[in-house]
Write a structure and sequence with these properties.
The protein is built from 19 helices and seven strands. The protein is mostly helical. The strands form two sheets. The chain has a four-stranded mixed sheet with strand order 2-3-6-7, sandwiched between helices. A three-stranded mixed sheet has the order 1-4-5. Helix 11 packs across helix 13 and helix 13 packs across helix 18.
């Protein structure tokens, strides 16, 4: 009996020790899991204003690197109790490094404030017409163009780099170069609060330098989802496309081409001269050895004409080498309107009215205003003058190349140019 009792006590002691060991291992695993969940996986800290960049490097900034959980929280909070007028984000924590002047200038965001004055009926109708047109053209078999019938899953990741996300307000913006995209990128920076000025988020869009507005590191785009979310990236894109407000701004396709040519080839732009102008000069202007420097070329009076630019666009060899540059790539190829159902389609020709309507629709008109700017000097009235040197057959080929943009976004066929 004593032997049995002793064995029983031994088993009890061993069992107790085993249970204690299991408990220790369990809590250790829980701790590791909690630590893993809170490890930062988002991009780094917010970027200081370049003018104060050196100073900001020496002073720790208030905004913290977001974690995976904060990403999820930011996503969910966009849709909790909208319309309350209450801030959805906490105020920056007070730190001894922040100047008193900066604290005085910081105005807490009053998110989800609803504009009391209703939007004019003609503006509502304008948007309904533009969105209905997109659906009709995408569903109509009479017009075909590359990628029209593919699904969103079939769009290569590299072709989603123009879709900028603002998780703070639930916004997706597809930017189209030469369609006021600089100012809209500035607005997206202000809304996302990704740029600091004297330790607080920059609130003035026009204070953001052009080079900063176009810095890829300032914007979180769909093509960056793979790095952050891995195999869940495409699913999360679809969730955000379903829940968020999506918008883009477009422009008369031919006028946009004229604007791109003027901006990139009538000035001293070394990058575009090296990458494209020299190619045009060799292929179409009989300059076998054009100067290496754009300054030297302009001094010699050597630069591509608008006709050379159109020849370059129509040349099958151009896209065999590489896809069109974003400044003259078709708008539908940049923004995929047959795969993404946009909530707002703005036109540069009605930019001021559309911008005011959009900011109210996004419920951020209390946070930011669209910058007032001079009217673009490239107008539709001057379109015919630019095409005087372009043969009629080339004009018609060019229209076919950009016909989808004309049809999708409601721009009339330019008969004055195509029927001379």
């Amino acid at each position: 009996m004593m032997g049995t009792s002793r064995m029983f006590h031994i088993f009890v002691v061993l069992g107790s020790a085993f249970m204690i060991l299991l408990i220790i291992l369990y809590w250790k695993e829980v701790g590791v899991s909690r630590q893993y969940l809170h490890n930062p996986v988002s991009p780094g800290p917010k970027i200081a204003n370049p003018a104060q960049h050196q100073q900001q490097q020496q002073q720790p900034q208030t905004p913290q690197t977001p974690s995976f959980l904060s990403d999820i929280d930011a996503f969910v909070n966009q849709f909790l109790e909208p319309g309350t007028g209450e801030p959805t984000d906490p105020l920056p924590a007070e730190t001894s490094n922040q100047s008193e002047k900066a604290e005085e200038r910081y105005v807490p965001r009053q998110e989800w404030k609803i504009h009391l004055t209703p939007v004019a009926e003609d503006l509502r109708q304008r948007q309904e017409n533009r969105q209905r047109l997109l659906k009709d053209v995408c569903a109509n078999d009479s017009l075909s163009f590359p990628g029209k019938n593919r699904s969103f899953d079939d769009i290569p990741n590299k072709e989603l780099d123009h879709l900028i996300i603002d998780d703070r307000h639930g916004i997706v913006y597809c930017y189209v170069p030469k369609v006021a995209c600089t100012n809209w990128k500035r607005i997206m920076i202000v809304l996302s609060e990704s740029l600091l000025h004297h330790g607080v988020p920059q609130q003035d869009p026009l204070a953001i330098p052009i080079e900063v507005a176009h810095d890829d590191n300032m914007h979180f785009t769909f093509n960056k989802f793979w790095k952050r979310y891995g195999k869940f990236a495409r699913h999360l894109m679809k969730v955000k496309l379903k829940k968020y407000k999506k918008f883009l701004f477009v422009r008369d396709p031919f006028v946009r081409l004229i604007s791109a040519f003027r901006d990139k080839f009538e000035g001293l732009n070394q990058n575009f001269y090296q990458s494209f102008a020299k190619v045009m000069l060799r292929r179409y202007a009989n300059h076998t050895t054009p100067p290496d420097s754009v300054d030297e070329a302009f001094a010699m009076g050597v630069h591509p004409s608008f006709l050379h630019f159109i020849q370059f666009l129509l040349d099958p060899q151009t896209e065999k080498v590489s896809p069109f540059n974003e400044h003259w790539q078709q708008m539908y190829r940049l923004c995929h309107p047959c795969q993404i159902q946009y909530d707002f389609v703005g036109h540069l020709e009605t930019a001021e009215e559309d911008a005011e309507h959009l900011l109210r629709l996004l419920r951020v008109d209390n946070v930011v205003e669209f910058p007032k700017s001079h009217r673009n000097v490239t107008s539709t009235d001057l379109e015919s003058n630019w095409f005087d040197t372009v043969p009629l057959e080339m004009r018609r080929e060019l229209y076919k190349l950009y016909e989808a943009d004309f049809r999708l976004f409601g721009y009339d066929r330019p008969d004055s140019i195509l029927n001379e």
